[in-house]
Amino acid sequence: SGGRPAWLSQQYPEVCQVDEHGRRAPHSDRHNHCRTSPVYRKKCHLINTQLAERYKTHPALLLWHVSNEYNGAACHCDLCYAAFREWLKKRYGTLDALNKAWWTTFWGHRYTGWDQIAPVDHSINGLILDWQRFISDQTLDFFLTEARPLRAITPHIPVTTNFMQPNVGLDYWQFAPHVDVIAWDNYPRWHRDDDVVMAAKTGFYHDIHRAYKRGQPFLMMESTPSGTNWQGVCRPKRPGMHMLSSLQAVAHGSNSVQYFQWRTSRGSAEKFHGAVVDHGGREDHRVFRDVAEVGAALTRLSDLIDTTTQPEVAVIYDLQNEWAINRALLPRNQDIDYQQTCIRHYTPFWKRGIPVDVIDSAQDLSAYKLVIVPMLYMLRGTFAERLEAFVRAGGTAVATYLTGIVDESDLCFLADAPGPLGPLFGIRREEQDVLHDGHDGLLQAVEGNALGLSGQYNCRHFADVLRADGARALVEYASDFYRGQPAVTVHAYGQGEAYYIGSRPDETFLSDFYDSLSAKLALQPALATVLPAGVTAQIRRSDAAEYVFVMNFNAEACQVDLGAHSYMDALTGAACPPLLDLDGYGIRILHRARST
Ligand code: GLA
Q: Whole-prediction pTM value?
């Protein structure tokens, strides 16, 4: 259903999306159908029924991949508006409840009829947030409609759809229970800026996909064998990078490496996109050989499919929070960088090879030792109570500035930040300073602080002026009118501890802070060694065996000291030497039985 023929748009204009100003899009492109249209739903149901009937006994039928890369783009047609209003009636029951949740009295925007509601008024944050939730739900409903005939006719065949990077306007956490296996399309921009930074970001994305179904392996549905053709500059992968980036997915939990595309098309939009076989149709070139080598490696790694990772650390990255915070109109709106901030808090663990789950705020916390909550502006559901219970029972939580500001409807808590989390963190925010670019603030570690932090650090963009209310300061501000007030605090709570970082600190701080916390909590890295910069290690294990993927994202070769630990090389079967050589963009997969 991702792409449709022109005759369909011509015969049934309702399948084309309508924009905010009521203009229906002409037929073009793909991934742009109305997800409410009964006609489009019927046609997709029909075609899927026929596919399932035709191929139901075919021996090559292993998995249904429904549609392609659903996205969160809006359609403003009458059908969508009617469905949205029904969705709202179910959520709020009465207009009074809706007016209150959206605070429409402000600017005199109170609704007196359901049919007045149109998701074009961006001044009502709650309305636009609910509209995005509706689009996500409607897209899920469309997927379920597509999957229905497949599940009815071939109940033994699993069904999936390919997700993309996680900020496309769909709440993939709602999709996850409805797909039989998670699949996603992975297109990192290698060789553009810093490959190590890109690798950490890609690791973060993979870890979300492993977490969507609580540690179950996923599929990398698409990746390019070479370059793409949709970036400003689409560089082919340098030697080594294809094996490295393919097996990076496997290291984080993928049970497949799949490609877009097999052979480059001769014409149209993607005729210059990388492929296994290029226009020349040859096997004797680098890309084909790279792909063949990955295939051979995967064959030797078949035992991996029953392994996974159970991290002790979780970073909360909440998609609905992202929709809300990006539209909140805060004192500083430049560089809100919610996702990037979550990645910055993830990266110190990635660098040390400590496995991390990336989850949203609705997930169970009880399996973790450490839960990191960057910028969780919106506290949904029972999250505040669950985080409190987690710490009370002995867990460690870290939250940052811009946490605990609004409820699920984007209504501010009638309390100082971090709202209902105030007693847990033992602080209250008296004021929030925001800083211009280039006007960094200064932090000073408190003498004798419990994490052994020392010296000064820079901070930028946001600075909470905090009052300790039970918490102790680990770091104080060393600049501006709040000099000497707490910037980073710790609060002993129940059996656990709650840390609060009031400003956006530099990388050195995050590295020192999480190093010290990891040591204190005795977090287990994949490999018990100090990894060189730009090298990470990720682990997959079963009861019987463990595999450690040691990956060098530097262009230069390096060595990793394995010390007295003995491993076999999973690809060659040979014993690994104590000093492991890694080529530039090199990867080694270490293997050992669990009992040793
Ligand atoms: C997406 C699509 C593919 C193709 C690739 C190109 O992932 O699903 O059809 O267009 O991008 O990179």
A: 0.98
